[in-house]
Amino acid sequence: MRYLISLLVLALSLSASQITVAVAANVSYAIDELKRTFAEEHPEVRVRIILGSSGKLTAQIKNGAPYDLFMAANMAYPEALYKNGAAVTKPRVYAKGALALLSPISRDLSEGLNTLLSPSIRRIAIANPKTAPYGEAAVEALKNAKLYDAVRSRLIFGESISQTLTYALHAADIGIVAKSSLFSPKLRRFEKGKHWIDIDAILYRPIDQGIVLLKHAESNPDAKAFYDFVLGKRAQAIFKAYGYLLP
After folding, report:
1. In degrees rounded to 5, what are phi and psi of residue 102?
2. For residues 227 and 211, is the Cβ–Cβ distance under 8 A?
3. Measured at the alpha carbon of residue 150, what is the angle toward residues 122 and 120, in degrees to the nearest 5?
4. Radius of gyration over alpha carbons of the chain, in Å?
5. CA 47 vs CA 91, 197, 223, 233: distances in Å
6. Helices (H) and strands (E) in the chain, counts
7. Among the residues of the chain, which ranges form H helices?
8. Between the CA of residue 166 and those of 103, 126, 157, 162, 242, what are the distances in Å?
9. CA torsion sign, 235 to 128 to 181 to 193?
10. pLDDT per residue over 205-223, tens digit each?
11. CA-closest candidate to residue 34, choices 246, 234, 245, 244
């Protein structure tokens, strides 16, 4: 019996295929659950994840990295890949990134972004609007809330949304971060209403995050299956659970 089981496991292993998915770092918190759910439908397909910034992953793809799909943090990078022929599908929005206001200590957040006017808040972390879409959205929210000029001198900038999260927790009094980061195991201890609140999406354009099927996987049905899964109902429910807005 053990011999037969071993043969079965070996046969399944040999028949299993693998796809490689380049994934923007902000999706790292949700990707494991996405993989598990996809495996329930396609147990024969192994999904290898490459995490990184959208800019660096795009450069790797342009230089021939053998990735099958790309899940970017915004639409600009997959659109560039589609235009130069490295992607074979037009970019589609799989989720919309949302902003949250995060304090490392419990405080009264009932006034929303107006909390930033408190004299006790001397440093406010946001992503650099020149290099990160979440930073651009944060500045847009501050300006639409008529707060930007009042808090501009207290802003400190992270070069990425992950660095901004580190600043918010360790180098600033508060920060504007990607809401999805709050669902990581390390941050689940922070309570909504005490440590963080949603920033009203009326104040900014939620960040369209785009997926493309890459030329390397043009004829790969397993890659197409994962592509369809990400855009389907089960994956959309996972994105919603991890703080994203839906397309």
Report:
1. -120, 130
2. yes
3. 25
4. 20
5. 21, 34, 9, 19
6. 9, 10
7. 2-15, 28-41, 54-62, 76-83, 133-144, 148-151, 161-170, 221-230, 233-241
8. 12, 10, 11, 7, 19
9. negative
10. 999 999 999 999 999 999 9
11. 234
All structural domains of the chain, each given as residue ranges with its CATH number in brackets, are 2-96+207-241 (3.40.190.10), 99-203 (3.40.190.10)
More confident residue, 14 or 215: 215
CA 227 to chain centre: 16
Instruction: Judge contact between 96 and 245, C-beta under 8 A.
Output: yes
HSE, CB side, 13 Å, CA atoms: give it for residue 140: 19
How large is the average pLDDT for residues 78-103?
97
The Cα–Cα gap between 151 and 175 comes to: 12
Q: How far is CA 165 from CA 151, 162, 184, 228, in A?
A: 18, 5, 12, 31
Tokens 């651009």 belong to residue: 136
Q: How wide is the angle at C-alpha 152 spanned by C-alphas 114 and 99, nearest 5°?
A: 55
Amino acid type, 241: A
Rounded-to-integer distance, Cα 133 and Cα 56, Å: 15
Tokens found for residue 173 = 């009094």
95: tokens are 């989720």
Locus of tokens 């008529």:
146
Hey, what amino acid is at 71? M
* pLDDT score recorded for residue 243: 95
